[in-house]
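Thread: Newbie trying to understand structure tokens

Hi all, I'm a second-year student working on a class project, and my supervisor (Dr. K.) asked me to get a predicted structure for one chain before our next meeting. I've only ever worked with sequences, so writing a 3D structure as a token string is new to me. If someone could post the tokens and maybe explain what I'm looking at, I'd be very grateful. Here's the chain:
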Amino acid sequence: SEDSRKYGHIILNDLRRAGYQVYPVNKKGGEMDGMKVFESVSELPKEVEVIDFVIPASQGKKVARQCAEAGFKNVWLQPGAESDELVELCWELGLRVVHNHCAMVEKSRRSKSVS
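---
Reply by user tm_fold:
Sure, no problem. This is what the structure looks like when written as tokens:
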């Protein structure tokens, strides 16, 4: 989201500050904070390791199918982006899925355990 108050924007910038290479995806495309915004996961570079869902669970099925079709293997369903039905679909599509965990919280825990 272009809205700096929205969680998608917050997590994107949090991961960037932590040194992760991130690629925003929004069907509107364009540019955000100096980064190209991809219109679909199918446009992402193939070396992307994890697709982090920061969307309503109702939109997740479509995106999960796009991930599988594009050859991505790992998805992370942020709290609020997950549902039992979506998790099951991800498994059926052969996707490895992390759910019930927030990427920002897990990143913070890992950095504290390394210090």
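A couple of things are worth pointing out once you decode it. The radius of gyration is 14 Å. The first strand starts at residue 31 and ends at 32. Feel free to ask follow-ups in this thread.
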